[in-house]
Design goal:
Number of domains: 1
Shape: elongated
Largest sheet: 3 strands, antiparallel
Helix content: 10-25%
Strand content: 15-25%
Structural class: alpha+beta
Mean pLDDT: 79
Number of strands: 3
Number of helices: 2
Radius of gyration: 20 Å
Length: about 70
């Protein structure tokens, strides 16, 4: 039993992997105006606090008219 103690202590340090970003259910008007019209609100995600969507396997940020990312 004592041999297993280090393994038990190490197992306590393991954390769960981060969850995938949640889809945005309601888009702010500024975001909705900047994404393709055929995207559903669920296709837009918040990643690291900023709005992003995936198109043709490419993750694309949502930017305002001055080129700044739109973030929360």
């Amino acid at each position: 039993m004592i041999r297993l103690l280090p393994l038990l202590l190490l197992a306590a340090c393991v954390t769960a992997p981060p969850s995938p970003p949640a889809p945005a259910t309601q888009l702010p008007p500024a975001v909705a105006a900047r994404v393709p019209l055929d995207l559903t609100p669920g296709a837009v995600r918040v990643v690291d606090g900023c709005y992003r969507y995936t198109l043709n396997d490419t993750e694309i940020g949502v930017f305002d008219e001055t080129g700044n990312p739109i973030c929360l």
